[in-house]
Amino acid sequence: MFEYDAEKHYPKETESRVVIRFQDCDPLRHLNNAKYFDYFFNAREDQVPKLYGLEVIDLIRKYKAAWVVYNHNISYVKPAMVGEWVRIMSRILWHNENTILVEYYMTDDSKTQLKTVLWSTMRYVTLAEGKSTNHEGAVVDFLEATSLKRNDIWDFSIKERVKQLSMELKKS
After folding, report:
1. How do residues 105-142 score in pLDDT, each as one tens digit?
2. Which residues contact 66 (CB under 8 A, 6 or more apart)?
């Protein structure tokens, strides 16, 4: 279970290095569009316990609620190719009392070329009724410790975000 420690630094971004698998690619050797979701979600699922000491299933069991995706917005910039090593980053850009916006993005291994950006908006709902509920307890602590809290995120489109991330990668 996540226990907030005021003395600890909580990274705002997760990062994984993965190889694009043959079975996940189309005949042109590009990562299949639907498979990007698997790569993004698996990377975050692997990194959250390592970085924050949190197994999301523990929150689900304790609070009898979970996040349910109600919107994906994805932009494919450059294809990921079979056998290519890539970097996958994720972060909670924004949250309120019952919703989170998670940003995932993929780059080449050297983190100089943006490949894909995904925004997933999720509502926190009860398991029993499937109705929206507010974050509470350790869930709030986790979100406060790890979210970027970008209130300006709704001021621009994913297309503009792609430009921002591409420029950031070129600077580094």
Report:
1. 999 999 999 999 999 999 999 999 999 999 999 999 99
2. 60, 124, 125, 127
